[in-house]
């Protein structure tokens, strides 16, 4: 069976379980379950701390896993990213009191508090900066106020928590992260089931980002409509009972759907509608 590591708690866990469920895999019903066997799909799921997943996969104990890119890089595990999963986006940045620094080059000799020591040390080394890294497991925002550090490096979403602590971001982002599917580095022969897992996850991502659009249009206007919405390969065109009219079906990006409906109306399309796609293979 394919052995898959899944985050056991937090928003990363909830989104990972959701995408696996949409992909047709059985998932645990309670957070007390540490593992689950999906016999129908020949997969075993193990629910682990997000920070530990890259280590298990990198050591070959488990075949693949879902984790954050930042956690994978921070672990220095022997693991490679197979695909990005489109959720849990975050940005890792420096922050300090106003005027504390303008860029990473200003941090030489300073104390920097973080929960991602591996990522931070790599970034400092890449920029040739010699600074002291203070590793904390949480509440990094308080490190400056409590005198533990001069600045911090942490995940920033809205920046509200930083402002409440009297801090502001500075310099370029250290890392942009999101949830990723990983495997052990250097594995030439993929484990059984991994290609199916990847296809299913890709199908879910496409289904989330696309809708199916249907409309009726005069046959002599199909070329103009196809120029507006060409689809992934080519639209499906079927004759209607009404002479000279056809029905067209095409996949379009969800974010563009309203704009495309307006443009299709302008070239003569009528009865335009969109429907969600729950799963697909491209």
Automatic annotation (TrEMBL):
CDD domains: PBP2_HisGL1 (cd13591). Its EC number is 2.4.2.17. Residues 49-203 form the ATP phosphoribosyltransferase catalytic domain. Gene3D superfamilies: 3.30.70.120, Periplasmic binding protein-like II (3.40.190.10). GO terms for molecular function: ATP binding; ATP phosphoribosyltransferase activity; magnesium ion binding. Its cofactor is Mg(2+). It comes from the Bacteria. Keywords: Amino-acid biosynthesis, ATP-binding, Cytoplasm, Glycosyltransferase, Histidine biosynthesis, Magnesium, Metal-binding, Nucleotide-binding, Transferase. It catalyses: 1-(5-phospho-beta-D-ribosyl)-ATP + diphosphate = 5-phospho-alpha-D-ribose 1-diphosphate + ATP. PROSITE patterns: ATP_P_PHORIBOSYLTR (PS01316). GO terms for biological process: L-histidine biosynthetic process. Residues 207-278 form the Histidine biosynthesis HisG C-terminal domain. Feedback inhibited by histidine. GO terms for cellular component: cytoplasm. InterPro entries: ATP-PRT_HisG_long, ATP_PRibTrfase_cat, ATP_PRibTrfase_CS, ATP_PRibTrfase_HisG, HisG_C, N-reg_PII-like_a/b, N-reg_PII/ATP_PRibTrfase_C. Pathway: Amino-acid biosynthesis; L-histidine biosynthesis; L-histidine from 5-phospho-alpha-D-ribose 1-diphosphate: step 1/9. It is found in: Cytoplasm. Belongs to the ATP phosphoribosyltransferase family. Long subfamily. Catalyzes the condensation of ATP and 5-phosphoribose 1-diphosphate to form N'-(5'-phosphoribosyl)-ATP (PR-ATP). Has a crucial role in the pathway because the rate of histidine biosynthesis seems to be controlled primarily by regulation of HisG enzymatic activity. This is ATP phosphoribosyltransferase. It comes from Kribbella capetownensis.
């Amino acid at each position: 069976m394919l052995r898959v590591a899944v985050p056991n708690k937090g928003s990363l866990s909830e989104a990972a379980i959701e995408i696996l469920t949409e992909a047709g895999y059985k998932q645990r019903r309670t957070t007390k379950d540490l593992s689950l066997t999906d016999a129908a799909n020949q997969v075993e799921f193990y629910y682990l701390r997000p920070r530990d997943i890259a280590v298990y996969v990198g050591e070959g104990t488990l075949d693949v896993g879902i984790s954050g890119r930042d956690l994978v890089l921070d672990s220095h595990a022997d693991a490679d990213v197979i695909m990005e999963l489109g959720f849990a986006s975050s940005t890792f940045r420096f922050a300090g009191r106003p005027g504390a620094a303008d860029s990473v080059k200003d941090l030489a000799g300073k104390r920097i508090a973080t929960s991602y020591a591996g990522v931070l040390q790599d970034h400092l080394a890449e920029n040739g900066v010699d600074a002291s890294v203070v590793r904390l497991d949480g509440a990094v925002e308080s490190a400056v106020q409590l005198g533990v550090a001069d600045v911090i490096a942490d995940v920033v979403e809205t920046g509200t928590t930083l402002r409440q602590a009297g801090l502001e971001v500075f310099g370029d982002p250290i890392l942009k992260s999101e949830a990723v599917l990983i495997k052990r580095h250097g594995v030439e022969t993929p484990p059984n089931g991994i290609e199916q897992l990847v296809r299913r996850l890709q199908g879910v991502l496409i289904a989330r980002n696309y809708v199916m659009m249907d409309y009726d249009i005069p046959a002599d206007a199909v070329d103009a409509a196809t120029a507006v919405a060409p689809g992934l390969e080519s639209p499906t065109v079927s004759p209607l009972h009404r002479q000279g009219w056809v029905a067209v079906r095409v996949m379009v990006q969800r974010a563009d759907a309203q704009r495309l409906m307006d443009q299709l109306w302008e070239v003569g399309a009528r009865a335009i509608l969109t429907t969600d796609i729950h799963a697909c293979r491209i």
